[in-house]
Amino acid sequence: MQWTNLSEQTVYENRWFRVNLADVALPDGRHLDHFLIRLRPVAVATAVNEANEVLLLWRHRFITDSWGWELAAGVVEDGEDIAAAAAREMEEETGWRPGPLRHLLTVEPANGLIDARHHLYWSESAEYIGHPEDDFESSRREWIPLKLVPDMIARGEVPAANMAAGLLLLHHMRLGDG
């Protein structure tokens, strides 16, 4: 049962996103107007050290008025390599420069409304280079034992679904199911 986007027009845009209105044909022949948001890709990065601790940021999101643990993340600039953007974001937001990044997963956090793909990367090493340039992004940055991640997610301390998915996968890869 595939929906078909027959056409769309931009109703608002700025340097961060576009809001479009699509004419969508349903499988039964009916049409509906559907709003959608077009975004640039998002690059996300973290590191897991030898002690199986993961680098996280504690931050407030004013939109949902919630606090939670997150990974460093930001939009990929035009023409920028996604992994390079992930490394840049981690360095800017945490003060830690990741070692070689490995792709963890790509998710579509709200694919019924937004076309953004979030590309998550991780490294097995990181070098502290100094206080983060973008320290306004978070209240603190900490190395948290990976073994605590599932309980943190269950308590709602990692509210963003993309971050929770990446952290659970890292937990599984590094520590297994036990």
Automatic annotation (TrEMBL):
Cofactors required: Mg(2+)
Which InterPro entries does this entry report, sorted A to Z?
NUDIX_hydrolase-like_dom_sf (IPR015797), NUDIX_hydrolase_CS (IPR020084), NUDIX_hydrolase_dom (IPR000086)
Q: The Nudix hydrolase domain covers which part of the protein?
A: 38-171
- Give the top-rank taxon of the lineage listed in the UniProt record for this protein: Bacteria
Name the keywords, alphabetized. Answer: Hydrolase
Give a yes or no for keyword Transmembrane helix in this entry. Answer: no
Listed name of the protein: NUDIX domain-containing protein
What is the organism field in this record?
Streptomyces noboritoensis
* Record lineage: Bacteria, Bacillati, Actinomycetota, Actinomycetes, Kitasatosporales
